[in-house]
Amino acid sequence: MNSLRFTTQTSSDGVVERDFTLGEIPGVLWSPASAADRAPLVLMGHGGGTHRKWPAMTGRARLLVTGAGLHVACVDAPGHGERPRTAHDEREIAVMRRAMAAGEPVGPIVVRYNAHLAERAVPEWRAALDALQRLPEIGPEGPVGYYGLNLGTAIGVPFVAAEPRVTAAVFGLHWPDALAGTARRITVPIEYTLQWDDEHIPREAGLALFDAFASREKTLHANAGRHKELPRFEADSALRFFARHLGRTVMTPA
Amino acid sequence: MNSLRFTTQTSSDGVVERDFTLGEIPGVLWSPASAADRAPLVLMGHGGGTHRKWPAMTGRARLLVTGAGLHVACVDAPGHGERPRTAHDEREIAVMRRAMAAGEPVGPIVVRYNAHLAERAVPEWRAALDALQRLPEIGPEGPVGYYGLNLGTAIGVPFVAAEPRVTAAVFGLHWPDALAGTARRITVPIEYTLQWDDEHIPREAGLALFDAFASREKTLHANAGRHKELPRFEADSALRFFARHLGRTVMTPA
To answer: Pairing state of beta strands B41-45 and B71-75?
Structure first.
């Protein structure tokens, strides 16, 4: 059983950022600078081709920490960030780039490669959650959220389906292929985001994945715009969603 | 030109509620008790079979007034609340009740009757907006929002399409028939709500009306649940939407 080793710590504007490693996996934990008691944890999965400290990750983490006093953790996905790529990773990435350059649909390749990454990532996330819950400021009891779009959804759906400790999740921006069957086993509250004019994910495909979740409370947020035009106010909505389901009060005007 | 006549005034928990009449039309204006400067106005359309002081109206009004310092006005729709029903109203309501009792689809009747009510209501709303903007605490300059679901959408879509003073709108829970063509002329930011498991409005119909709006910024919120199970947190989302588009800051945690 790997334990979590903190490497560096910085602090700014009320947020403590601690890098850690869990075995070979680099991660980061953002926490309230003023935390007195234990607070719930949100696990954040980054998107394809990015990493744990991509601006979208640091921005969302800061919002959740300052807005609702949550802890937020993100680890690099397999083959992403500081982690080595396997020969399989290199081949799939080359295939994806050729398709993009040729203007061919990347969906089938992304779906296949993300499913492969999820198989590697789910056990890592479960180990990371074990280790994070051993920290005294998080603890084993509290509710846990999961927040991840595109690759973060490809990994998050099987992770949340397998992980009873996660009690609320924000997903989005993915195809239903390889995920809809697993989504049917998820019953915790979810918020699901899609882009109404997504040039990669057909509208019906996004709606089909949302439809698949078995959750009694589920909300779809569909915004006008293309794949990468997700509005910033959706992060604010995620903050409110997690505050509601993890038992926190939103502390800052937004 | 009818002017607005205030009849009664009460105040509680930071909200001043003033009943008014505009010619024969009864209305209500909710305002911040502490308002110093002018503040923007949100016009609120109530649902079919209800009236200007239905609990959903007073609850949403209080949220917008205390949460963002807005003025909120609602008038009874034709044939609703304290207003007399015409013979046409009585006939349509009877037809609707018979369909409900027989378990037949009410959609076609509601669509037809709502379109009729909208024809009567749109000029009334324009006159009400004229009169409300003559009040010194509102004024003719400020941005104006519109917030109305089901019948409030049937009236609101043609009203907003005809009314350049309205700069942001929350709609939802309606069929596209009779409205989609008009929605294509609306370009202001909108938030649109539908119920994923609506027993009256087919899912594809709700999605089609959302799709019709020409707005560059438009957001669909689809929640699991039946027609009348719209979650309370959607009012909170509407508060944030109006604060964003009418230039206000959300003042209370929510």
So the answer is: parallel
Residue B99 lies in a domain: no
Range of the domain at B77: 4-82+118-245
| In-domain check, residue A87 | no
Rg over CA atoms, chain A: 17
| Angle, in degrees to the nearest 10, between helices A233-245 and B233-245 | 150
- Number of CB atoms found within 10 A of residue B10's CB: 9
Q: Which residues of B touch A231 (CB under 8 A)?
A: 217, 219
pLDDT digits (tens, 9 = 90+) for B152-179: 999 999 999 999 999 999 999 999 999 9
Does the distance separating the beta carbons of A224 and B244 come in below 8 Å?
Answer: no
Residue of B nearest to A252 (CA): B253
CATH number of the domain that residue B77 is part of: 3.40.50.1820
In chain A, the DSSP E strands lie at 4-12, 15-22, 25-32, 41-45, 71-75, 144-148, 166-172, 190-195, 218-223
With CB atoms and an 8 Å threshold, state whether B249 touches A253.
yes
Instruction: Tell me the CA distances in angstroms from A210 to A109, A115, A221, B205, B212, one per residue in order.
Output: 21, 18, 10, 17, 21
Q: Which of A79, A89, A88, A90 is nearest to A46 (CA)?
A: A79
Whether residue A220 and residue B219 make contact (CB cut-off 8 A), yes or no, is no
- Whether the predicted pLDDT of B35 surpasses 90: no
Paired with A148 in beta bridges are A45
Any residues with CB less than 8 A from the CB of B155 and at least 6 apart, and which? B45, B77, B114, B117, B118, B121, B122, B125, B148
Bridge partners, residue A15, by sequence: A12, A32
Average of per-residue pLDDT values in chain A: 95
State the DSSP string of A63-129.
HHHHHH--EEEEEPPTTSTTSPPPHHHHHHHHHHHHHHHTT---HHHHHHHHHHHHHHHHHHHHHHH
**How many structural domains does chain A have?**
1
Inter-residue contact B87 to B95 (CB < 8 Å): no
pLDDT score of B89 more than 50: yes
- The answer as to whether B87 is a domain residue is no
Residue B12 lies in a domain: yes
Q: Mutation test of the interface with chain B: which of A192, A211, A213, A220, choosing the one with the most B Cβ atoms within 10 A?
A: A220
DSSP A163: -
Mutation site for A-interface testing, chosen from B186, B213, B215, B219 by largest number of A Cβ within 10 Å: B219
Q: What is the pLDDT of residues B92-107, one digit of tens each?
A: 999 999 999 999 999 9
Query: Are residues A219 and B215, on separate chains, in Cβ contact within 8 Å?
Result: no
**Residue B217 and residue A224: Cβ atoms within 8 Å?**
yes
